[in-house]
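JOB MANIFEST
job_type = single_chain_structure
chain_count = 1
residues = 247
[input]
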Amino acid sequence: MNSGEIFLSVIIPAYNEERRIGKTLEKISAHLSRQTYTYEIMVVCDGSKDKTADVARGMAGRIFNLSVIDRKENRGKGYTVREGMIASRGRIRLFTDADNSTDISHFDKMRPLFDGGCDVVIASRNPRDAVEARQDVPQGALKRLLGHMGNIFIQMVAVRGIWDTQCGFKAFRDHAAKAIFSKSQIDRWGFDIEALALARQLRYKIGIIPAFWQNDPESHVKMSAYFQVLWETVRVRWYIMSGKYNL
């Protein structure tokens, strides 16, 4: 690796996260500072109405290689992750949620899969994907039912064989990140499905690690997002069939 190369880029999409972003950055920095590889941390603000960007910028003096993109217009998580993926420089580019529900230490499990030839590696909270996957506090019965039914629909329409497409901890080799996110169209919650569907269409090798997911009661995801994801899944299928992605 050249001295100027970055091995890992950690992209954190953030919307109104002034209360949590500092703690998350400290945890990520503490783990990465113990590693032997080079890294950068990038917070991408999605038109936040609070002081998320100010809090993040204020930590730049004590967190190595931290940058902040402060976009004033809210465009959605998909747009925000895409912006970070394209702007980052790492040979591997990981996005993780601002609530730190999947700890950065999970990347240690991803590295052997990348070394084994994977182009994309995702974390899953579903034991059907990875036997050791678990959640510290199970979601309510209604959310579990909706999630299960929604995933069956997602598998039928866009991404077969993956039981958890929505876990917010996914990593891409640089060539895969550039190819996938330069073509992606979904700006909001369905972007995970689109990224995996495009990875399949581009014949990239996808690996899965088990996640230990820690639910945050202050999550910004609303019930309406489930139905938005289903509609965006249909859009992804249509875009593939119509040639919109120019694959």
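[summary]
The chain has a mean pLDDT of 93.
The two ends are 31 Å apart (CA to CA).
exit_status = 0
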